[in-house]
């Protein structure tokens, strides 16, 4: 512990480490070191965001996907998925329900669905923007052309979530079909930032073949991109994918990475993800205690929840939006935090 504590202190003062230092810290982590890290991470978080927890209403509006990521349950070559897409009216209904429950950010997430063309997305975004001028509209619909991103932005979208998944090109190629590349994914992120989106990136923890060096490179990339939000969660196998027999990412490493991210980018928005809540009943609470400050309850209609199965045993697939929201409120209160009704813009500019 003594040996590596200096790296955490260095991270706190300089907000960065070298590739070798990141690797050494990740490899040499211990429960004592993690405890020390979380304490510092919480201090940073309280300094900038107090004990507030922002909520995002997640609307999983389509599970059609043209991609074939090897880890993902809704990949196109999984024939067992019952495919659905919500209509524009249905999505607007979800937003209205969400608004009444106190959500001021809607996250429209989906597979890369050809039905939702640029024109259809623009129309949808404009309608949400018109009905909810005080809300943030976040998109998470994968890789698009710069022109598409620009059009969505002009229609009223403010934020975009696109995890880089893993920075290392070789590792990336082992998780994706040859048609997808780390470079193309990263270019999208630079485009999004350049257009003016509040941009979120992130990675899976414990994805197959991932090494500590890969995680070190993820940290270096995130430091360079300097996004407004970073979403990380454990890899969880899905039974109908090529990775069905791979090991689950651990709670312990995910929490450690959350703490490191908070120290590296003190003002970043950091969700405590559903995947974290899936691998441990107290996962989301522990994520907050490691430095996270956002939760994303599900606003999708209950009828389709189970069909948006990216991984096995996903939680909250049977709960109404209001139940999810209340459940999270209670969970946050139990650890001394409070869910707030606010847009919750990032302070990391
Ligand atoms: N299509 C959009 C995209 O590519 O960004 C958004 C939907 S995609 C399913 C959302 C995220 O789910 C991915 O970025 C990935 O990190 C995560 N994910 C997919 N399969 C997963 C798995 N088996 N375990 C954990 N996370 C997974
Ligand atoms: Fe969905 Fe707890 S957050 S039921």
TrEMBL record:
(3R)-3-methyl-D-ornithine binds at residue 140. [4Fe-4S] cluster binds at residues 65, 69, 72. One of its GO terms (biological process) is water-soluble vitamin biosynthetic process. S-adenosyl-L-methionine binds at residues 165, 185. It comes from the Bacteria. Pfam families: Radical_SAM. It comes from Clostridium scindens (strain ATCC 35704 / DSM 5676 / VPI 13733 / 19). Binds 1 [4Fe-4S] cluster. The cluster is coordinated with 3 cysteines and an exchangeable S-adenosyl-L-methionine. NCBIfam families: rSAM_HydE (TIGR03956). This is [FeFe] hydrogenase maturase subunit HydE. Its cofactor is [2Fe-2S] cluster; [4Fe-4S] cluster. One of its GO terms (molecular function) is oxidoreductase activity. Keywords: 4Fe-4S, Iron, Iron-sulfur, Metal-binding, Oxidoreductase, S-adenosyl-L-methionine. The lineage of its organism: Bacteria, Bacillati, Bacillota, Clostridia, Lachnospirales. Its EC number is 1.8.-.-. It is an enzyme of class 1 (oxidoreductase). Residues 51-289 form the Radical SAM core domain.
